[in-house]
From TrEMBL:
Signal peptide: none
Domain of life: Bacteria
Domain SpaA-like prealbumin fold: 2-76
InterPro entries: Ig-like_fold, SpaA_PFL_dom_1
Keywords (A to Z) from UniProt: Secreted, Signal
Keyword Secreted: yes
Homology family: Belongs to the serine-aspartate repeat-containing protein (SDr) family.
Keyword Lipid biosynthesis included in the entry's annotation: no
Protein's name according to its UniProt entry: SpaA isopeptide-forming pilin-related protein
Amino acid sequence: GEVLQGAVFELQNREGETLQTGLTTGEDGKLAIEGLAPGAYQLVETQAPTGYELDATPIEFEIERSQTAVVELTKENRLTPGGVVLTKIDDQSGEVLQGAV
């Protein structure tokens, strides 16, 4: 799939306490958080990009003591299904036509 700009996340500890808010993916679809102390964390999507469904399922990850490697996580968003509402109107009176097929 394509990368998505504008997804907003919140960084939490494993207990669900908020540590950082407003973490937003850039044009490349990525966001970076630096300087995390060793411990268990989770990212929770708080706002999906326009046209996509919000998935607030936490993405859990852990930073180990003396870890130097970057942790890479991936999250996929589903398109918001479209819809349509059709109203039949009499072209003379402008009244809604009940039961029109």
